Amino acid sequence: MTASILIVEDEEQICKALKSILTDASYQVFIATTLKQDEIEASTRKPDLLIVDLGLPDGDGIILLHNVRQYSTVPIIVLSARDSEDSKVVALDAGADDYLVKPFGSNELLARVRAQLCRRAILPDKQDSSAIVLGNVKIDVPSQLITKHDEPVHLTKIELRLLQCLLQERGKILTQRYLLQQVWGPNYVEHPHYLRIYMARLRTKLEDEPANPKFLLTENGIGYRLAT
Ligand code: CA
């Protein structure tokens, strides 16, 4: 089955480029050039993934993110010329799964698309899988036993909670604010140093080379992502 992708973008050149890259990679592609058209296309086509521009003629793509997230968990990649950290954080907090700045490379775009589709594919049977593998780390889900190179690893409550948050949204960029809120609670969202300290501890315990992490990845200035 071919995955279908809805592009919401008003710039004709970019639409053409995206369509050709994605069609060549055997995806089925639909295009909407306005928020209004997106609503219609998204409801009739039921795409497997959305690629959304933020600057649309009849409104901001952020509105679209909020709207879609009220009824769907479909993966959304934002593609925007806005490259500030603030813009990325706003889009991710509004429900985007990933953020790509224009101009983009076709290989990078395809890699991000694959990661999001794969994430969605592995989500439904997440509960059934009894073991999760991260590099040389294995997590036995029923017993919560964690081993690295077959040696048991002990995580504190906070470290475990942080790892669980990353696992629940594996492949997605999670903002610092989101993680602080999930792990420590709403009073801690302005304390990113907590997160830095605990991420460093998790890497020391789980990564082979904590300074060069393979799965506990940093998204500079934005947050973290667990590699798929
Ligand atoms: Ca635009």
From TrEMBL:
One of its GO terms (cellular component) is cytosol. Residues 129-228 bind DNA. The keyword Ribonucleoprotein does not apply. CDD domains: trans_reg_C. Residues 4-117 form the Response regulatory domain. Gene3D superfamilies: 3.40.50.2300, 6.10.250.690, Winged helix-like DNA-binding domain superfamily/Winged helix DNA-binding domain (1.10.10.10). GO terms for biological process: regulation of DNA-templated transcription. It comes from the Bacteria. The keyword DNA-binding applies. GO terms for molecular function: phosphorelay response regulator activity; transcription cis-regulatory region binding. PROSITE patterns: OMPR_PHOB (PS51755), RESPONSE_REGULATORY (PS50110). Keywords: DNA-binding, Phosphoprotein. Residues 129-228 form the OmpR/PhoB-type domain. The modification 4-aspartylphosphate is found at residue 53. InterPro entries: CheY-like_superfamily, OmpR/PhoB-type_DNA-bd, Sig_transdc_resp-reg_receiver, WalR-like, WH-like_DNA-bd_sf. PANTHER family: KDP OPERON TRANSCRIPTIONAL REGULATORY PROTEIN KDPE (PTHR48111:SF50), REGULATOR OF RPOS (PTHR48111). This is Response regulator. It comes from Candidatus Anaerobiospirillum merdipullorum. The lineage of its organism: Bacteria, Pseudomonadati, Pseudomonadota, Gammaproteobacteria, Aeromonadales.
